[in-house]
# Entry
Amino acid sequence: MKIEPLISEERIQGRVRELAAELAAKEMSHPPVCLMVLQGAVPFARDLAGHLDMEGKFEEVAVSSYLGTTSAQRNPVVVGKLPESIRGRHVLVIDDILDTGRTLDFLHRTLVEQGALDVRFCVLLRKDVPRVCDVAVEYVGFDIQNEFVVGYGLDFQGDYRGLPYVGVFCPDGSAEGL
Ligand code: 5GP
Ligand code: MG
# Structure
């Protein structure tokens, strides 16, 4: 098993500061309920919040679609309950990565059904893959190629979330010759 560094801690933190400035300029005139998607978005959302002078609500939602594999064939489901506070509010969803788009498309539909005024998205990473679901994402940290990445919240079977950087996860041997 090997992790090939892709985005350094320094680049992540610099981009997070830029995104926070963008969010402050564009979103804070109508303070949204921020909704972070557990568990992958936790470090990103925490670091973003650290730069935003936010008095509003910061909520969390758990969506399950990956259960110990590196592909998302399953449909997403909310684990537990959606926070009540989203009713009649602008919602800013903060997630780790846009891949097929299933998760964010599902959240968009679900949040609107539950009474959100509107839903915007901020993701750390956007993968260069054809989307299964077409989702408009307003804020993107980095565009990356179609590789399975870990670190800075992103895991492989629960490991690597604590890395301060993002790296490409290479199963045994496959990093050879890169
Ligand atoms: P989507 O529903 O867009 O296909 O995928 C969204 C979720 O799949 C992400 O929030 C993340 O939890 C997981 N995911 C997608 N790509 C990756 C990846 O490269 N690495 C990790 N660790 N998780 C991923
Ligand atoms: Mg996720």
Q: What stands out?
A: The longest strand covers residues 118-127. The beta strands are 2-7, 33-38, 58-64, 77-79, 90-98, 118-127, 139-144, 149-150, 166-170. The chain has one domain: 2-170. The CA atoms of residues 6 and 157 lie 20 Å apart.
